[in-house]
């Protein structure tokens, strides 16, 4: 862990693999794993239902609380794709190591096809995904300390790269 208790935070678009990679990185580093989307669902119910019943602003407030909770763990934290839209979340990430996971649209197409993700409910989910990603990309880039594409190769290579980078930055802080 870092000397200040900072987390390794995974950010990026829907379908980039933040949850599956985050879980594996946490295991490799022997640190707790926290997924903000999982936390919201566990405490408040399905995200799709929250969007339908209460709207996106209500979901974003719940997500913001989950981000605060996750960053307090000192472990590996996976943020929902839109969590970085909140200015307080962006400010909070300054004290942590942030990894941006990217993915090519051609690859994400299979990952989000038929998805129940509320923001992708349109006639062309991939076009909607691309639009959202392009809007958020400048924020992702600004926050990222490390960027890794998850489009090709074994997932384990991504996990190993993040774990090695984390251990290297731990040593640099000592």
Characterize the structure shown.
By secondary structure, this protein is of the alpha/beta class. The protein has one domain (8-173): Rossmann fold. Helix content is 56%, strand content 11%. Helix 3 packs across helix 4 (56-71) and helix 6 (105-112) packs across helix 7. The termini are close together. The relative contact order is 0.21. Mean pLDDT is 87; it is low at 1-5.
Quick recap:
This protein has helices at 18-29, 36-44, 47-54, 56-71, 87-92, 105-112, 125-143, 155-173, and strands at residues 8-11, 33-35, 76-78, 97-102, 146-149. By secondary structure, it is of the alpha/beta class.
Spell out the blueprint of helices and strands.
Elements: E1 8-11, H1 18-29, E2 33-35, H2 36-44, H3 47-54, H4 56-71, E3 76-78, H5 87-92, E4 97-102, H6 105-112, H7 125-143, E5 146-149, H8 155-173
Parallel strand pairs: 1-3, 1-4, 2-3, 4-5
Helix pairs in contact: 1-8, 2-4, 3-4, 6-7
Keywords:
5 strands; 174 residues; 5-stranded parallel sheet; Rossmann fold; alpha/beta; disordered N terminus
How many domains make up the 3D coordinates? 1
- Output mean pLDDT: 87
CATH class: Alpha Beta
- Total number of helices: 8
Helicity level: 55-70%
Query: How many beta-strand segments?
Result: 5
Q: How would the global form be characterised?
A: globular
The main sheet comes to: 5 strands, parallel
Please state the structural category: alpha/beta
